[in-house]
Here is the input.
Amino acid sequence: MNLGTVSSGVVESRVSTRFDRRLARILDHATAIFCEKGYERASMRDLSRACGMSLAGLYYYFESKQRLLYLVERESFERVMDLLSERLNGVADPEARVRVFIQNHVEFFLARPKVMKVLSHEDDVLEGELGTEIAAIKRSYYRACADLVECLKLDRNQRFNSRNAVMALFGMINWLYTWYNPTVDGSPAVLAQDFADIFLRGVYSGT
Amino acid sequence: MNLGTVSSGVVESRVSTRFDRRLARILDHATAIFCEKGYERASMRDLSRACGMSLAGLYYYFESKQRLLYLVERESFERVMDLLSERLNGVADPEARVRVFIQNHVEFFLARPKVMKVLSHEDDVLEGELGTEIAAIKRSYYRACADLVECLKLDRNQRFNSRNAVMALFGMINWLYTWYNPTVDGSPAVLAQDFADIFLRGVYSGT
Amino acid sequence: MNLGTVSSGVVESRVSTRFDRRLARILDHATAIFCEKGYERASMRDLSRACGMSLAGLYYYFESKQRLLYLVERESFERVMDLLSERLNGVADPEARVRVFIQNHVEFFLARPKVMKVLSHEDDVLEGELGTEIAAIKRSYYRACADLVECLKLDRNQRFNSRNAVMALFGMINWLYTWYNPTVDGSPAVLAQDFADIFLRGVYSGT
Amino acid sequence: MNLGTVSSGVVESRVSTRFDRRLARILDHATAIFCEKGYERASMRDLSRACGMSLAGLYYYFESKQRLLYLVERESFERVMDLLSERLNGVADPEARVRVFIQNHVEFFLARPKVMKVLSHEDDVLEGELGTEIAAIKRSYYRACADLVECLKLDRNQRFNSRNAVMALFGMINWLYTWYNPTVDGSPAVLAQDFADIFLRGVYSGT
DNA sequence: GATGAATGAGAATTCATTCAT
DNA sequence: GATGAATGAATTCTCATTCAT
Here is the structure.
């Protein structure tokens, strides 16, 4: 599966039924609206207007507003994580692997700025099972990063506080949605490198 | 103004009328509720319950829910900024000055975790004049930090991308609200140092 | 028409087309659902789920939800009434005839507890022509009973208030749906006899 | 407490605040609407129209439509039961006591035909705690009647099936709401006597 | 015969806010 | 200073029904 070629659609798959395609379109609109107004302020009416579909018609495609957010979030997380393991494949050097993580995250989400904001900003809103499931996915994404950092630490014989370091890194990359402007800020690749440099030099203690 | 002696109240001033003191109490409750449920989901009823005051009674102290958030945000920003300039006073070394900024921010907001979340999370919600005003304050806080970093860069003769660096720093410290747990994570002072180390080493390029 | 051989289906007839048979199955499901949730709360979606048929497919068999209830009600009423006249055939004694009515009603509906509830409970809901028609059928069922009681009254030279008596009787037998429990309450036959005894002794005034 | 003088209001008490009085008015309208259209078909809009109050204004007086029905039902049940024990006071003869029960029920509810219908017809609709509570009240009303009948049975040395008898009685009196017409049917007192005669003669077996 | 997709109308409920008192 | 009572507008979601295929 070559995810690299997929640029903007939230949902995509080799065989997509008409239902899937329409749902995907709705999810795209939903992402845009959740991004613009925030999940809570975004109303189903707003979405209905954006989709050019009746309010009731929307509900043919999913059962609730919460489920809508869930679908947006799950889809994206699975996508970055798939892409990450693919890119990590064959990269052995611990430092290089951390760089791959940062690059992957920054490039993926800078290509989908709206999703990025929704994921970063609407962290807590899902309740019940849906919330639990998303929380689990997020945890495993965090774990993946933490493991890479841990390996690096061992490899380089460093003694920095891992949790603080990983959280600092997540801070850098998750805060992106609040300020990145494609017209004034550099290319995603360059930015990723800047972040990687700051992080890596940052955690290495002298000697 | 000696902010160091003020421990918990959001609003305080040398001469505080009874009105001011009651408003301050309301703002504290509002902060707690905005933190817990998010601004949009928090209802005036929730606040009324928390304050033990009637819904209508609340409106004697402020004009609208938006204004409430505005007051909470403005107050806190003014406080960190005042505290910052006070602490910067007499510190000359550019690196030390950046460290002071980080320490001030981390310590101030870790002492007020609820305010920290509200400020970081409810960034966009204010509209109109209120929004413009808060945006201006935030910009000046950003500017203060950016200036410190710029001085450091000149002083050390570095060539990192300033905006990226400053934004990486803000990412670290603003993301704190999502993960910091006083019982498992170190003291604010230690954490601030960790962050400062990561940032400073991070932006210095070798040689 | 020999109704005695028909055990459970709501709708059945000597020559039943495939259409009739499928409609009958739908009516059975509809009866169950109307019984369980009440007509108003029961949704066409519930029915569609129960039938394993699409919502739209259902409408091939009837025009509207109201018509569905109408069919359920009409069918059952016609069945009890047919069965009644059959059983009354050859019974001459006025008291025995009243006993036959009670037995017939109790046994018929205790064999179809769901129908019993729907008929007793969803009395008013049909509007327009459909409502008028069902009302007419109910009236003729009431009339049949009232006539039997009237004959008995004349035969025994009694002077009880007929309407009150008949309504008391209908009360007993229509209220059954709210309490009858096959595992704790006696057989329908015994229950019918109890009711008949209470009613008959009840209306006879001494001497 | 002299409940005999209270004729129609659903809620009343010696000291009734303005809130109570307005709530009572709403409950009266609600009773009328639930009676006319059934609980499920009755909409809060219907009630709002009937009360001449805004939809939102209604909710100042109770928290949900279910609670509204609960209040109507509880109030009435408590009233009949209070009235019953009052009237039973000083009546020793077991048969007389059963007559008092029937008279009390018939007269109370024939004076409040709308409440009667709501209570008889909307039996199952309340869910959760509200439903449990109402079910408990109904059970205790049933128990009261069953106890009276049991005493009578012992006193007269009869052997009829008590449950069937009591249920037959409840059938008679609860079915009333479907047919009683004050202009053609006799006075409540006479009707109650008719019912009592039917029931008492009905359960006594000869000799 | 049957269905996927869609809809207008309406459901209960909540919201921030106001105003006479 | 503070509140009880009220409201218009909006919320999410469900309903019976339809129609092209």
